[in-house]
Amino acid sequence: MPASDPTIRVRIAPSPTGPLHIGTARTALFNYLYARHVGGTFVFRLEDTDVARGTAEFERDILEGLHWLGITWDEGPDAAGGGDVGPFGPYRQMQRNASHAAAAARLLADDLAYPCFCTPEELDADRKAQEAAKQPPRYVGRCAHLTAEERDARLAQGRKPATRFRVRPGVVGWNDLIRDRIEIDTANLGGDFVIVRADGTPLYNFVVVVDDAAMEISHVIRGEDHISNTPKQILMCEALGHPVPVFGHLPLILNPDGTKMSKRKSQTAVDDYRGQGFIREGLVNYLAYLGWSPGTQEDVLSLPEVVERFDIGAVQKGGARFDRDRLEWLNGQWIRRLEPDDLVDRLRPFLEAAVADGRIDRLPSDDEIRTLLPIVQERLPTLAAVVDLVGFLWTETVLGDPSILVPKRWDPATTREGLAAARGVLARHDAVTWEADELEPPLRALVDDRDWKAGDLFMAIRVATTGRTATPPLFDTLVALGRERTLARLDAAIDSLGAASPG
RNA sequence: GCCCCCAUCGUCUAGAGGCCUAGGACGCCACCCUUUCAAGGUGGAGAUCAGGGGUUCGAAUCCCCUUGGGGGCACCA
After folding, report:
1. Which nucleotide comes closest to A191 if you measure CA to C1'?
2. CA A280 to CA A69: how far, in whole Å?
3. Which value does ipTM take for this structure?
């Protein structure tokens, strides 16, 4: 579509206080989609203000996770670990503290903000009283009109003030990109709010305004849970003399019970989905369709295809529940579309993990994996499913419970007889190459000869050689297993049945 | 308690006044294919468009109310 529109700048500003959250990824994705669709710039800024938690690792997780999804930014920290990229750096909030302090000083000087000496105990008592009186919590304004002498006196006592922003009376409104007009009376904002803590560190709401202005962010696209922050931010923009960006509030991603998605009720870490074998194409496709649709009947779209069709105005207003079934279906769609070599590469880590925790005994070669693809690719809802699907190929013993060896219509004796006969046929088949279409005819002939049902015999062989009742097509499976192991497993099964029913 | 947002099949959604006796997808059921499992194909059940008032010749679509759901009200982000 359009080449570029330098006036449109959007951003994602995650806080590295946890692993990359599905909701953060979705917000990042929609910003990315909007920026790419209109040819604007996508900025990544880290709100690394909370030093208390182990942020370095989470920071890496977020950067890496977004890149894994294919969500790339034009300005911001380098996902590979290099320096910041872009003309508006630094892109880490902590390194912009000087500008935050300057902005706060300016508001203080203009009396658009004031020092507040209230103690946590006082504020807590206020809140409790309001709660008891069934009043909404709000700052009572104790320090709003202190005289210079009163302030000096408190300072002299060594008290450290926080900085509060004066909320002016009136109505603040904006034209939301997805919900049209929203207007909020500032009387409902909870009174003057703190923008700088007593220890001098600035608060999120304030920093965002300063940084967004400095980075010339034109459109702020974020979750619906920020709607009540927006009037405060608009007020601060006005006070600071900054242009007010365009706002767009995305619907939330919900737990299956309809509440805001949470770790408690859902799996929220992108990395967990990745670990379970969801691929980026599936995840991104799914996320894009949570709250948006192209308005056509297309279901499976690549990231570039979504970029092409994306329209921020078509975004849904109501929240969307996370539906894992649909995600799995879409993931399967994308796994089926992968090129063989690509799929082999993506499967390998899951096989390695299975070796590491003992689910399989050895790691198959790339060639082995590639050979299996025709019978495996269309059966994988996730990459991780490969272990359950064909793990029996790389384990020594396969038969856990001999009782599943006996098909419904057969008894143990018949099963033993059937397996023995099949073993004989397959062993004799030594003269011919061990290929799927050569294995089948003689076994069918055997079935006809004994008046058995092909399904019963095949099922007995299937369970004897794989330990499972559901597998890829039998003869392809036997070929993958190889002659030696097939015969050995048949022998083992026959033995186990012999022990169970002597005679 | 207060403020704000939202409301089409179980779920994700199409629908921007007549094309809607509401379409698609996931999931579910049946059948076909078939040695099992998938995949694929075909068909089906599933929404009186939350309810009630308007506006209009005509409303899922516009307005109001009710109800329901959600979000937010920190010296968190």
Report:
1. B73
2. 5
3. 0.96
Q: Is A263 part of the annotated catalytic residue set? A: yes
Location of structure tokens 């996370």: A322
SS3 label, residue A29: helix
Tens-binned pLDDT, residue by residue, of chain A (503 aa): 456 898 999 999 999 999 999 999 999 999 999 999 999 999 999 998 766 666 889 999 999 999 999 999 999 998 887 789 999 989 999 999 999 999 999 999 999 999 999 999 999 999 999 999 999 999 999 999 999 999 999 999 999 999 999 999 999 999 999 999 999 999 999 999 999 999 999 999 999 999 999 999 999 999 999 999 999 999 999 999 999 999 999 999 999 999 999 999 999 999 999 999 999 999 999 999 999 999 999 999 999 999 999 999 999 999 999 999 999 999 999 999 999 999 999 999 999 999 999 999 999 999 999 999 999 999 999 999 999 999 999 998 777 777 889 998 999 999 999 999 999 999 886 666 788 888 999 999 999 999 999 999 999 999 999 999 999 999 999 999 999 999 999 999 999 887 544 43
**Which pair of structure tokens corresponds to residue A217?**
């962010």
Protein residue at shortest CA distance from C1' of B13: A293
Residue A498 CB-half CA count within 13 A: 9
Question: Is strand B less than 7 A from the beta carbon of A260?
Answer: yes
- Protein residue nearest nucleotide B1, by CA to C1': A134
Burial code (b: 16+ CB inside 10 Å, e: under 16) for A264-284 equals eebebbbeebbeebbbbbbbb
Chain A 49-68 residues in 7 Å CB range of strand B: 49-50
**pTM tops 0.80:** yes
Which nucleotide, over all strands, has the C1' atom closest to the CA of A224? B71
